[in-house]
C-alpha cells in the first residue's frame, strides 16, 4: 500500500514535469524548423475569396470593435457574414449599422429566431458563405491586419490541410486572473500547439476564436456539430477521421478577452475538459486507426484525466495526514524541478511572444503563482467535467453571455 501511495505521489508531481520537458523540447525544435522555412505570403492575384463568419449572441459591447479590425485586414478578397443568434440586446441593430457604415465590404447579416448555440450559428452562416475558404472568429476577437493572410497562406502551402488555427493573445489584463491567463496562453497553450505540431504532426484542437477551413473540408465533415459542448475540439477530430490534417499558425495573431472572475474561468475550463471527454467517447477507434501522433494526443487526454483523479485523492490524503497525524510528506526535489522547468518554459514563451503580445518583463514574476493556479484550475475543471459528463452525457449547448473581464 505504501508503494502504491509513493508511486501515486510521484506521478502527481512527475506528470507535469514530463509534460513541461516535452513542451519545451518540441517548441524549441519547432522554432528552429520554422526559422529555416521560406514562406512567401500570398498576393492579390493568388488569394482565394474568403468568407469570415462572426457568430454573435448579446455582443453589443464588442461587435463594433471586432468588425473594425476585420475592415482593417490587409487581405484583398473577403466578405463578412454576421450571424445574430437570437440576441436579447441591440446586437442586431449594431449589425445593421455596421453594414451601412462599411459599404466598401460585402457584409451579409443572418438572423436566427432561436438560440441554438455557436455551432448551429456557424452552420447557418456557412450556408450563405461564398468563399473558397472559411474563417470563423468570435465576436469579441480582434484580428491582426495580416492574420487572414497568414492563415490562408498556410492552407495553400499544405494541400492536405483542412483547417489551420491562429494564436490567441490575451488583451484584458486588469486583474491577477487575467494576467495569469496571459502567461498561460503564451507559456502553455502556444507552446503545446507548437510542440504538438512538430512532434506529432497534429494538434489536439483548433482555437475557436480564430480558425480557417477549406470549404471542401467543412463540407466533408458536415459542418460544425451542435450536439457537443466544444465545437472546435469536435470538428478537429472529425477532420482527422476524414483524413484531413489540421495545422497551427502562430503568426496569425488574434487578440481575445478572457474571464477575469474565478467562477467564469472554471466554467470555461470545465467546458474545455468536457470537450476532451467527448472526443475520447467518439474517437476511441482512433487508438488503432489514426496515425501514431494522433494516438499519442488521445492517450495524453486519458492520462490528464487520470492525473486529475489521482491528484484529488492525493490532496485528500495529504489533508487527512496533516489534520490527524500532523504529517505532510512532499517530494521537495520534484517540486523544485517543476518550478525550474516552469520558469524555463515561460521564459521561452515570453521571448517568443514579447513583441506580438506586448509583454512587460514583470509578468515573469507571476510564474510561481501560475504553477499553482494552472494545475489547480486543471484539476477542478477535469473533475467538474467528469461529473457533468456522467450526470448528463447528452447535454447540448446554448449561448450565454460569457465573463469577459472586469
Features:
406 residues, alpha/beta, 8-stranded mixed β-sheet, 13 helices, 56% helix
What can you tell me about this protein's structure?
By secondary structure, the protein is an alpha/beta fold. 56% of the residues lie in helices and 14% in strands. It has helices at 2-36, 63-71, 91-101, 118-128, 147-157, 176-200, 215-221, 231-241, 262-282, 286-289, 292-325, 332-353, 367-391; strands at 50-56, 78-85, 107-112, 133-137, 142-143, 161-170, 210-214, 245-256. An 8-stranded mixed sheet has the order 3-2-1-4-7-6-8-5, with helices on both faces. The mean pLDDT is 86.
What is the topology?
Blueprint: H1 2-36, E1 50-56, H2 63-71, E2 78-85, H3 91-101, E3 107-112, H4 118-128, E4 133-137, E5 142-143, H5 147-157, E6 161-170, H6 176-200, E7 210-214, H7 215-221, H8 231-241, E8 245-256, H9 262-282, H10 286-289, H11 292-325, H12 332-353, H13 367-391
Parallel strand pairs: 1-2, 1-4, 2-3, 6-8
Antiparallel strand pairs: 4-7, 5-8, 6-7
Helix pairs in contact: 1-6, 1-11, 1-12, 6-12, 8-9, 9-13, 11-13
